[in-house]
Design brief:
Layout lengths: L1 H7 L33 E3 L6 E3 H19 L29
Antiparallel strand pairs: 1-2
Length: 101
């Protein structure tokens, strides 16, 4: 679904591998710290000492991977803003102005 929507609105979709260890890699220094049980929600990088929230760290790694992939293929990292198409915006069918309650 995301692929066709990206194409439809002139965007680039960058995928990260399903088994990419994004929560195991330090988003600060890039060292792979190794697997951790799911109950470990915070961890400290043994190399640089940065304290990481597991999910936040993984999100930063995914964001960085998307930026690297986009810049490697020559695409802009952040495309310029495009106004939403009418079919994308809000709810329709209500006239503007006051509605009867």
């Amino acid at each position: 679904m995301l692929e066709y929507k990206a194409t439809r609105y002139g965007r680039t979709l960058v995928k990260t591998g399903r088994f990419e260890p994004t929560s195991q890699i330090c988003s600060t220094c890039g060292v792979k710290d190794g697997p951790k049980p799911l109950h470990v929600r915070e961890w400290t990088c043994a190399a640089c000492g940065t304290l990481h929230n597991r999910d936040h760290n993984a999100a930063l790694n995914v964001l960085q991977a998307a930026g690297l992939a986009a810049s490697a293929c020559g695409a802009p990292i952040r495309p310029e803003s495009v106004l939403a198409q009418r079919e994308e915006t809000g709810s329709h069918g209500f006239p503007t102005g006051n509605r009867a309650a």
